[in-house]
Target: 2-keto-myo-inositol dehydratase
Amino acid sequence: MQISVFYNHIVTACKQTGLPLPEVLGLVRGYGIQAVELDLDEVQPSPEAIKKLLEQAGMSVASMYAFCDFGNAPDVRPGLSFIDTAAYLGAGKVLVIPGFIGESADQELRERSLQHMAAALREMSEYAGCKGLIVTLEDFDDSRAPFSTSEELLWFLNEVPKLGITFDTGNFIYRGEDALEAFEKLKSRIVHVHCKDRSLEEHPGEVPKISTNGTRLFPSPVGSGCIPMQAILDRLETIGYKNMVAIEHFDAADQLAYMKQSAQWLQATFNPLQT
Model:
């Protein structure tokens, strides 16, 4: 088992602490975090510079993610270019957010948008496979995302046979779904994991995510919130999962401290899966 973290958290930690990026990267690497999760927008100015920076820090790219709009703009070429960039940076997986559908959309528009998304994901999955990458979809925490529940994800998995699942531990609660029940439905296709915990306690300086039932969900170091992280890790062990687990806590008031605490908890808890 290896641990990654969102590159966004590292950049945010630089802003919060005033420390230079190479120094924060060194601290994060010292916490036992070996890789990053990269937003395509973060690397667009210069993939070469990002690659060099990470190599100097002794870190790799676990996965890249990108926001697309295939429902309205079904041209898949930007998605294929995204895969090229991910391959150049050495990522083994890409996470695609294929688009959103407004709540006012009628059934015809919704069906057409879903088919466009599925078609793009199929072509991207074929292309990625030729380059040794896996295209994934996650349970995205937005009511406009037609892939925010396990049942919605299962529809895409049926439509796109080569699609993998990035299992985000903390996003099912957004739609009021039990994460463990969702795990059982999706476990055969899980290839990547975002370890996101949530706190129900208000944290000064942090903005909550408001779930569809009005629950205020604050960031949390992994293992310190309301998500059944231990039970999820136990189930990952049961299915023999030994891939990357990614620390995620966007909007944390102290990213550096959260990253350290999350890494320590994962190392202590997930040791049975060490390879």
